[in-house]
Amino acid sequence: MILQLTLTLGTLTTLTTLSQAMALTPRGVPIPTPIPPMLRFQCSQLVLDRLDPLGSPGQIPSPHLHQIVGGNSFNATMDPATHDLPGSSTCTSCTFTEDLSNYWTAVMYFRDWRNGTFTRVAQKPNLGLEGNGGVTVYYIPPHDNTTRVAAFKPGFRMLVGDATASPTNPGQDPKVCHRCMPEDGDLGNLNCAEPDTKTFPTGFCVGGIRSVITFPTCWDGVHLDVPGHRDHVAYPVEGNYDKTPDGGVCPDSHPVKIPQVMLETIWDTTPFNDEALWPEDGSQPFVWSTNDKDGYTQHGDYVFGWKDDSLQRAMDARCFGNVCEGVLATQTVEESVTCTIPQTVVEDVDGWLDRLPGQEDMPM
């Protein structure tokens, strides 16, 4: 997609012209449009755990495994009335030290059709970034220089995707998808557009499988959260946040434009690009930790935790990439990967497993 660029020393270079962007793309691959301003940064893995303070608040364990990144005050409850992420966290696994938010998604596994065992698919840092897997996080304002977005407020939460979706009930979220990645990344392609699919790719992916989760960009201006964590936000009803310079037209019920938050994970499926490892019936071998072999159940949860007004300042400054000089403080990759927490639900999530964590049966 247009947000992925060739970088130097892990730092996203500020590009102000199309010619600059094209000069830095690998093997002369052109970028068809100028690169808009955005934050794009790595959040390394905080923990793999069966906790879900939005989907299953206070439940230990939650039904399925999540990969979790961000501030180290993450826990099973995170009651918005008492839990202050910036005040409670002592570190973050993200590049920007003022971002103590938490982000979490489902986890991808490979299933060996020959004996029914599972092994976790490793994540790898996105193009030009470094870390121990985890998630690439984006905060994107409208592309023009006049439309101001309102940064989130303490207590804000939202969720995209449906962990119970299925082929007969595929869910309504249009911005949760997969892409079969080429070897050098994928430039010039928008998130969740052709050739992205809601389901898993059906063939070998030489660059792994990219999972994209894009949150709505319109807010009702009143509720920081609602039951279900969805109805206080909405996607534009006219135009497209990715293509329309002012971010499109928000519905009257949700008039406030907020940053486009996007979670992008590259799952390194390349060790399994072997015909002998794929099912003989022609199906693909990957599953989400939600007990889903089709791909419909990937989902993303977001709990806002930026310090003070740091995110608003970054959006107003039109910062670019994983550097926001004079506005946001950063930490090194070596520092970010040391921010981890122990599992609350202590169980094996790696190696070869007889079943997915939390799943008694895996019908295939």
How would you explain this protein's 3D organization?
Keywords: Signal. This protein is mainly beta and 364 residues long. It has one domain (41-364). Helix content is 6%, strand content 21%. The protein has four helices and 18 strands. It has helices spanning 18-24, 85-88, 310-316, 333-336; strands spanning 38-43, 45-49, 66-70, 102-106, 108-111, 118-120, 123-124, 135-140, 157-161, 176-180, 209-214, 218-219, 233-234, 256-257, 260-267, 286-288, 299-303, 320-321. The strands form four sheets. Strands 1, 7, 8, 10, 11, 15 and 18 form a seven-stranded mixed sheet that branches. A hairpin with a 6-residue loop joins β5 (108-111) and β6 (118-120). The longest helix has 7 residues, at 18-24. It is globular and about 55 Å long. The protein starts with 17 loop residues before the first helix and ends in a 28-residue tail after the last helix. The relative contact order is 0.24.
